[in-house]
Amino acid sequence: MKKYLLCVLMISTQVFSQTYPEKNLNTKITDVTVFLQGAQVTRKGETRISSGETKIILENLSPFMDDKSVQVKAEGDFTVISVKHKLDYLNEREKSNEIDSLQERIENIESQIALQESRLQVLAEKESLLDKNKDLNGETSGASLTQLKQAIEFYDRELSQIKKEGIITQQLIENLNEQKTKISRQIADINLQEDLPSGKIEIRVESDISTSADFRITYLVENAGWYPNYDLRVKDIESPLTLNYKADVYQNTGVDWENVNLKLSNGNPNESGVAPELETWYLNYARNTIFKSVYDRINPNVANVKGKVLDEDGLPLPGVNVIVKGSTVGTQTDFDGNYELTLPNNAKYLVYSYVGYKIRELPISQNRMDVKLETDQALLEEVVVTAYGGELQGKAKGIQIRGTSSANTARRIETTAIENQTTVEFKVDKPYSIPSTGEKLAVDLTEYEIETHYEYYSVPKLDNSAYILAKITDWDKYNLLEGEANLFFEDAFVGRSVLDAKSLSDTLSISLGKDRNIVIGREKIDEFSKRRTIGSNKIETREFRILARNKKSQPIQLTLFDQIPVPAINEIDVDEVELTNGKLNEKTGEITWTLNLKPEEQKELILKYEVKYPKHEKVLLE
C-alpha cells in the first residue's frame, strides 16, 4: 500500500548510534522563496531503498540552514522514522576554481611590481652616477661658458627625465598594490566560505520491501533576502506617474541556485509570531514619570546615512547588508565597503550582516556611520540537532503582472503576484539562477502607470521652494512595501526619497522634490509692522506679503502654509487682521491657502496679525 508521510522527528540521538546501511540521495534545488530576510529552499530527489532500515544521506548543503525548519515529505511504501541535521566538517564543499584564477592574477601583479621596483633601482643608479659627474670631472675652472651651459642643460634634462619616470613608476607600483589588496580580499572572502562546514541531513527510513522513494526536503537558510526599491518617473503634471517596482535580491548561502522556481515574498519568518500583551499601566505624578515615545527616532535630524564597513584588519567589506531595523529599506556595501541609505520616518537602528561575521545593530546617531565587523567564531562550532518545522503557507491565485530581470541582461521575464492572507509573493514564471556570491541582483518585478493628482506645497516662512506632491488613491492594490525611491521629474533626476507604504491614509503622498519654475517669496512690510501702547497693554502688529508665480506652461494647484502665534497664557491675545481668504486653524495657528495659478500668473497674499500683552512684559515676534 502506498503511503504519503510527513516525517515525525525523534529527539533521541541513541537511535542514530546504531549502524544502518547508508545511501546517498542526490537532490536538486527546485524551488526557492526569498523572504525579506532568509529564504525557504526546496530540494527534490528520488532513489530506491532496500528492505529493512536505511540511512538516507543528503550532503553538500548550506551551512546556514535553520535546523528548526527542516522538514521532509516522502512518498513510497516505507516509513520515515527520524531526521537529523548536522554540520559536516569532513566533507567540505568543493573548492572554487575562482581562487586559482585570482591567485594567478596576484602572481602576475607581483611580477609587474618586481619589474617596476627594479626600474626604480636603475633610475636611482642613474641619478647617483649623474650626481657624481656633475662637476665636469672636477675641472669646472677650465671649462668654457659654452661647455658649462651645455653641462647644465644636460644635467637638467637627464635629472628631470629620471625624476618624472620615477614618479610614474612609483604611482604604477601603488596602483598594482591596490589591485593586489582587492584581489587578496576577494580570495579571503571565498576562503571564508569554503572553509565553512557543509550542511548535512540524515533520514532514517524503514521498509518491508525494496521500493522506490521520492523525497521533498524544505528548510530555511540565512544570508539571503531582498529589499524593494522604486523608480518614480513623472513626465509632466498632466501625465500619469510611472512606478517601476524593483527588487534587490542577494544570497550567500554557500550553494548556487540554478534554474529554480523563484518567488519573492514580503513575509519574514524571523519575526516573532507571538501576539503582544499589555502590561499594567501604573499612573504616577508627572514629576515621577519618564515618558519616551517608542516611535521617536534616536536622532530625528538624520534623514540620510552613509559610511564604510570594515573588517577587523581595517579592510573594506563588499556586499554587507545594511537594513533599517523593522522596515524593508536596505542596501549593500560596494566593492570599497561604502554604503548610502535614505531613512524612513521612525528609523532608529541599522542592522549590518555579512557571512562569517557577527551581526551588528547600531542606533542611528549621525549622518555618517563607519562600522567594523568582527569574525563570528561560533560558525566553526558543530551543531547536531533533530528538528521539525511546520509547512510554510502561501498558495493562492493572484493577478498577472510583468517584470524584467536586470542582472546583467535586459531579457524580459514574466512574474505573477500571489496574494496570501498575510503576505504577498511575486513569482518569476520562468526558471531563474542566482549564484552564491552575495552580490546584489536587480530584478524588475513590475511597472505601473498610475493616475495621479499633483499638488504643489510650500512653507515660505521656512523655505521659498515649491515641492511637488504626487497623490495616489487606492494605492493598496499595488502591493507596495516601504523602500527607497529614485525620483525623476520632467526627464531629470531630482533626488531620493522613501516611499512610505506603511501609511494608513487612503491617499499616498510622494514628494517629487522641488520645482524651480514655481517662484515664491515672503517679505516683511516694515511700514505696517509696529508697536504701540494703549493703557496697560502693548500692541504689536506684523504684516507680510507673500508672492506666488507660476512660470510653467501648465496651470497648477499650489497649497501654501504659514502661521500666526498661539497664546500660551490668557494675558496674551492674538488677532488675525488680514489673511487674504486663508483658512485659519485656531488651535495650531496654521493658515492654509489653496491657489490655482494659470501659466505665468502671479498672486499676492497678505498676512497681518496683532498681538496684545501687558506692557511690563516682552514677547518675541518675527
Describe the structure.
The chain is mainly beta and 622 residues long. It folds into four domains: 3-95 and 195-223, no CATH class; 97-194; 225-380, Immunoglobulin-like; 519-614, Immunoglobulin-like (Sandwich), CATH 2.60.40. Helix content is 14%, strand content 44%. It is built from two helices and 37 strands. It has helices spanning 97-132, 145-194; strands at 3-6, 22-24, 28-34, 37-49, 52-61, 71-76, 79-88, 198-207, 211-234, 241-251, 257-265, 304-310, 321-324, 330-332, 338-342, 349-353, 360-363, 371-372, 384-385, 399-405, 412-419, 424-428, 432-434, 441-450, 453-459, 463-473, 483-489, 492-499, 507-514, 518-524, 530-534, 537-550, 556-563, 573-578, 583-584, 590-597, 602-614. The longest helix is centred in the N-terminal third of the chain and has 50 residues, at 145-194.
Task: Provide a brief overview of the structure.
InterPro entries: CarboxyPept-like_regulatory (IPR008969), CHP02231 (IPR011935), DUF4139 (IPR037291), DUF4140 (IPR025554). It comes from Gramella jeungdoensis. This protein is mainly β and 622 residues long.
Helical content stands at 10-25%
What is the typical, i.e. mean, pLDDT? 79
Q: What percent of residues are in strands?
A: 35-45%
Second rung of CATH, namely the architecture of the largest domain: Sandwich
* DSSP, total strands: 37
Q: State the end-to-end CA separation.
A: 89 Å
**Sheet with the most strands, sense and barrel status:** 9 strands, mixed, barrel
CATH class of the largest domain: Mainly Beta
What Rg is obtained from the alpha carbons, in whole angstroms? 35 Å
Number of helices: 2
CATH superfamily of the largest domain: Carboxypeptidase-like, regulatory domain
Shape: flat
Protein structure class: mainly beta
Domains (count): 4
- CATH T-level topology of the largest domain: Immunoglobulin-like
Strand order of the largest sheet: 3-4-9-10-24-20-21-22-11
Unreliable residue stretches: 1-17, 293-297, 380-414
